[in-house]
Amino acid sequence: MSTPSTADLVVIGxxxxxxxxxxxxxxxxxxxIVIEKDTAGRHASGVNAGGVRxxxxxxxxxxxxxxxxxxxxxxxxxVDDDCGFQKAPQIKVAETEDEMEAHRERVRVLNDxxxxxxxxxxxxxxxxxxxxxxxxxxGGLASLEDGFALPYQTTFAFQRKxxxxxxxxxxxxxxxxxxxxxxxxxxxxxxGTFSGTYLLNCAGAWAGNFAQQxxxxxxxxxxxxxxIVTARMxxxxxxxxxxxxxxxSFKQMxxxxxxxxGGLRGIASPETNGSQMLFGKLKQTADTAISIFPVMKTxxxxxxxxxxxxxxxxxxxxxxxxxxxxxxxxxxxFSAHGFQMGPGVGExxxxxxATGETNAPIExxxxxxxxxxx
Amino acid sequence: MKTHDVAxxxxxxxxxxxAIEATRNGLSTIIxxxxxxxxxxxxxxxxxxPDQRAALLxxxxxxxxxxxxDFRACSAEYVAAATVWNIDAGLQIHYSIAGKGSAQVTxxxxxxxxxxxxxxxxxxxxxxxxxxxxxxxxxxLKAQGAINDDVVLVGSxxxxxxxxxxxxxxxNAPRAIVETVPSxxxxxxxxxxxxxxxxxxxxxxxxxxxxxxxxxxVPVYGDAxxxxxxxxxxxxxxxxxxxxKQHRIETTGVGLHQGVIPNQQITRLLGCEHHWxxxxxxxxxxxxxxxxxxxxxxxVAGDGAGxxxxxxxxxxxxxVAMRIAEKNGRDTxxxxxxxxxxxxxxxxxxxxxxxxxxxSPENIVPADDVMVCRCEEISAGQIRHAVxxxxxxxxxxxxxxxxxxxxxxxxxxxxxxxxxxxxxxQKDIKEIDYYRIRPPLKPLALSELASIESExxxxxxx
Amino acid sequence: xxxxxxxxxxxxxxxxxEGQTITVEKGxxxxxxxxxxxxxxxxxxxxxxxxxxxxxxxxxxxxxxxxIDGTPNRQACMTLAEDGMKIRVQKAAFxxxxx
Lengths: 374, 462, 99
Hints:
The complex is a heterotrimer. By secondary structure, chain A is α+β, with helices and mostly antiparallel strands.
């Protein structure tokens, strides 16, 4: 039933979400085509900080993040590659009593929702996990069974497994128009036209254009979160660490390099695939890192990156059906915290597409939330 | 922050010449250089070298003295020991001075005069302590009067003979020269000889060096291949085939050389277009006829624009400065034409040299077990495996394997990685392309970020 | 062995390498000073801990990284020796650090 250019499902975008949805759809027996204007994992999915984090998620994301975590815990079974995934505590360091109180309140709320993965660390416990932490840090919030992975290796592994299952990837192929064609959906690209029964928009920072063609309003902003990487340092930190009152995400990799991010943004140019680092802004990140881990005074930066990512005004992704067209679905706008959710969202999107329903609580992520507000 | 008409990066022959010419034409000029004194690699220590050492380094080297003196006398602001670690799209240059703090400068035009690096020569054992580049041996001789009395030179190219000759004059000839030029190569190069005769002085110099070395009894093993540096924790011997015969020379030092290639870090960072130079076997920035890159206002002078040597570097440095002066309203066309003529004559020897000293295939496309990325210790075989898995180019291979992610930031493996991928995928290397280069250009102390002042304004793709 | 030809130490300064005092010429790079003192190993490679030493001596290859006065990742070939400098082989960064 499928020719080279037709399939049950056409996915636009081969970031972690596009690759994961394609893989899971193939597992459910659908034929799948993925259209990618660059190469898999070229942007945010390949160049993020790699945090596999449930800690501190927006409350509506918690159930989906938790579902995704179950997949991460046996990721090799799914993609035949360990994705560099390692379990590690995720810790948000508190520097003031107010911050500690906010953490206690959060744990109470999560417990009420039925989630128990986040826990309070006393100052002594914090020091146990982070011997190198500065003396002024008084405790923290932790999710001890989270971890981190290697982003490009992960996205590449999802792509390779998808290919093994028969998914056809068309890279360096830019989707231009999405059109209804009778019962099917057509995607017109610069390298020919593809069509499928179902259409899934996983185009990240570029997804707003396709939503617009479907008559939907999705104000995706292209952002370029910045990350810096140090030369290898003696091991001093086994957890993924964030600050509470100031932007910081901090992780020492197995090889001793330290990856420092935290949401500070460079300049994104989605029209040219470019992004530019703003080192002046990173000054703040450097200050925070040194203040929380004094050992960082001797650190040397060897690399920096920023990958283009789509951000929504409320920092929540769009996940679910199109509000205007049948057989069209969206999963984009993960607002710089979508990597961990990739395996789980891909799974539930495939479920939704193949069976017409999912029991995952995705209502809060409906695209229509912008239309109604607008 | 200071603004100048022209900023020059690199105070080698091209940078110094550009600074002299730019200031002569009334342009306010700043020149940043990583080394403590001007001269670049070719004229390293030119201002302080004792006469006796200068004599053995030869008249071409000594000619750098007057250039350096003219450079010192010109009105350009010269910042020594300045490591440029970022140039943003607004052409704002970030540099740190001897690791003591960061500063910024902007300019209307940027001249990149960062010269060449020695072509990386991956082969078994090339990471052992005691293996250096041949250029490194020359650096030690120029700057310190230091010489290794137990060394075998391996590879090809004019520099190999120059170093050997200088060592000989210093009373410490190399143990042997192992030359990778295949037997038939001279014949292939011969068709370029008539043209090369226009630059006869280079040929004469080369021939007399070879004669001296031969007279001194330095053994030369020609047509060498299957070269292996042996040793555990340090060099013990070099093993190779020469004209079909197996040799092994015990030594504690090896100097490798396969020619030089443009240092492309800054032009890559700025997003300048590059193309593959077939006869020089390297990427070079795409330049118009007067050395402007695809990024407006960014020029490349000297060997960074394609390998031409020191004389050419000076000429090209002057030419670029004149061109910028012309943009600023000075009529320099006549002078430019005169330099173009000299440049063409000097370049006449290049096709001959490039053909004769084409890099050795076993270094260009190393065998699977040879380490390519020295920092992260990635072999050619691992790179081919990543390609087999579906990684299409250098950036994906880098993301997957970490090759090019270490402190050298891909300088030592980038060209080899691109070449291996192109060969393995049977694709044109231009299509495979190179690593995306991101700041910092050189490792930067985290604590130094604190001294950064302001933000750039313009932005273009990187 | 590296040795000085046609020159000798005129302005001696002293640096320390792995606890051993070395007399060197003022204005020399750390890399040249150590090589002239007979040292070939400057660092351990970061993955397999092989011995490594200077390769390019012009700031490109980063093989000569050493620890100088407690700061790691210093390029020995781009750093001028200063009187009293304490230099150590840069170890592969595997050890547990103390606070």
